[in-house]
Amino acid sequence: MLVLLRALCLLVSLLALRVNSASCGEINVANVSLGTRDSGSGNAPINFDISWNNSWRSTAPGAPAPNNWDAAWVFVKFRKNGGDWQHASFNNTGHTVPSGASLDVGLADTGSSFNIATNPGVGVFIYRSADGTGTFSKTGFSLSWKYTQDGVGTGDTIDLRVFAIEMAYVPDGAFFAGDNATSTGALQQGTADTDPWYIGSESAITTFNGSGTGTGLAETASEYYVPGGIITIPAAFPKGYGKFYMMKGEISQSQWVAFFNMLTATQQSTRDITSASGKNSDNLTTRNNVSWTGTGDASLPDRGSGATYGAVAVNYISWVDLAAYLDWAGLRPMSEFEFERSARGPYRAVSGEYPWGSTSITQATSISNQGTLSESAQSAANAVYGDHASVQGPMRVGAMAYNHSTRITSGAGYYGNLNLADNVQERCVTIATSTGRSFEGRYHGNGSLDATGNPNVSTWPGTSVTGAGVRGTAWRYAATIGRTSDRANVSVLPSARSAWGGGRGVRSAP
Fold first, then answer.
1. What is the pLDDT of residue 9?
2. 3-state SS, residue 165
3. Chain-centre distance of CA 510, in angstroms?
4. What is the pLDDT, as a whole number, of residue 403?
5. Residue 188 in contact with residue 197, Cβ under 8 Å?
6. 20 to 30 Å CA-CA from 322: which of 40, 130, 260, 414?
7. What is the pLDDT, as a whole number, of residue 24?
8. Structural domain boundaries of the chain?
9. Which of 2, 85, 51, 115 is nearest to 329 (CA)?
10. Are 350 and 359 in contact (CB under 8 A)?
């Protein structure tokens, strides 16, 4: 049931009355069309079919863990009369959903009611309506677009691109943060009490300086300790207890290029990872294949036999690059609690465990089919770390899951998220600073950036990296910092465009 993460974009050229599709991943979107624009209601249907492999839903009583499902986060970009690309605003109702599928609208602010002007639908989740596994394939979806809200008239020529990102649902529930002080900086209940934190709600948490009771049963004591003094983590900060969706894998190079090519020239200049502040090259560098001449579209050149590296995790992105992508996609950054919850699930902490629930880890030491959609490591590997001479960069997102189905052999978190421990480091919002603690999980990207290409959600750390931190290891670093509870880098400011920096996004569930 473990699948890979990709993006797919479809261009609908209504001016020429034809549909041009360009697949860049595992989710297939087809037969896209824009229906009649109703001048009275200001609504128009955006029609499409969608399918992806290795889908699942497992929710019935007695069903196998983890009692969750996968989904596609679908959003739409448009431009009118050949202008700049903009984000489509969806109505809260009026969508057409085929039998066997469910659809939930995602608002920009999940803590407030729908308002087409101030809090529109920025995308939708599409997933199975009943338990099952295998290929999800449905025809006849229709999203209700409030085109007049977006400044479109009935006579304007419209181009559309439909994007879909694979996500995994994390249901609400209690969990443990910390691994009995085995990992560096792991959360514990007191100065002398190594029991992990018990996160039993989204309520505010106030830490203390005591030694702790040391009962051995974390859920029986409401004790929370961090070095350096007493802090309060507000109720609005996402603690991982509330339900959310997380991208199945890290942002891929094809996803990054698709995002970059939707930006204005000024925005592209700011987000250019091939510049001197990034990899400083248009060549294949540390397995990053993104190329941009300085104008027009970026590309992923074929390095031979179809090796474009589009499925490889994108590296050389900074915290602000990541936040910009998530704002543009209608997602948000993860908190460090959400990272730990998605990895561990509801189980008690195991000292020194990795996100797949084991203390063992096997390094990738070779790569087959480099740069292609079937790229994989040797059969026993479940993580990319340690700067092995034969790897030297991130691998295909989910490469460890190729021909593997168990959580350990696939290197997967409890809910099916891949590469949490390895490949590229995960950027998250930290509780270690006041800026981080002011982050509110209800606010998501609205699909647009500021004129310079920066994220503009006021409650995010955004360009102020003092609220951001790093979890997990990467292809270059040691295995130990990839442990689920390791917080060695949670106060490290991820401002640089490093060869090991990447990330993914989440979204509070409707």
1. 34
2. strand
3. 16
4. 75
5. yes
6. 414
7. 33
8. 7-169, 171-510
9. 85
10. yes
Determine the 3-state secondary structure of 430 from DSSP: coil
3-state SS, residue 50? strand
Percent helix, strand and coil across the chain, each rounded to 5? 10, 30, 60
Strand partners, 239: none
**Does this model's pTM top 0.85?**
yes
Q: Under CATH, what is the fold of the domain 171-510?
A: paralog of FGE (formylglycine-generating enzyme) (3.90.1580)
pLDDT digits (tens, 9 = 90+) for 43-73: 999 999 999 998 999 998 777 778 899 999 9
Contact call for residues 456 and 417 (beta carbons, < 8 A): no
> What is the biggest distance separating any 2 CA atoms in the chain, rounded to whole angstroms?
71
DSSP β-ladder status, 244-247 and 506-508 = antiparallel
State how far the Cα of 131 lies from the Cα of 56, in Å rounded to an integer.
Answer: 7
Per DSSP, the residues of 71-109 read EEEEEEEEEETT---EEPPBPSS--B--TTEEEEEEESB
Please give the Cα distance from 421 to 483 (Å, whole number): 7
Specify the amino acid at residue 207: T
Amino acid at 246: M
Among 339, 351, 362, 450, smallest CA distance to 408 is for 362
> CA–CA separation, 319 vs 301, rounded Å?
26
Place of tokens 């699942």: 56
